[in-house]
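Protein in question passed on here:
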Amino acid sequence: MTPVHFTFSSAFMLGLTGLTFHRTHLLSALLCLEGMMLSLFIALSLWALQLSSISFSASPLLLLAFSACEASAGLALLVATARTHGSDRMQSLNLLQC
C-alpha cells in the first residue's frame, strides 16, 4: 500500500470512528460524514488519474454531487431539529415522539 493510499484510507477510517464514537451532537456527525466523503472524493480522483481513463473521470464529480445533496439534507435536518427541540444533541431526539 502506497503512502497516499494509506493516508486517504486512514482519513476515511478516522471519520468513521468519529462518527461511531462521538455521537453527542448532530453537527459533529455531519462533519464526520463530510470528512469521509471528502477523503472518498480525493481517493477516487487520484484513482481516476492513475488509470488515465476517460470513462472513470465522471465518477468523482458524481460522488461530489451526491455529497453536496447529502450535506444540504443534513443541514436542513439540523435546522429543523434545532427549531423543534431547541438543541442538536442526539439524546434529545426520539423517533417514537414524531
Observations:
- The mean pLDDT is 85.
- Helices lie at 3-21, 26-51, 59-85.
- Residues 59-85 form the longest helix (27 residues).
- The chain has one domain: 3-87.
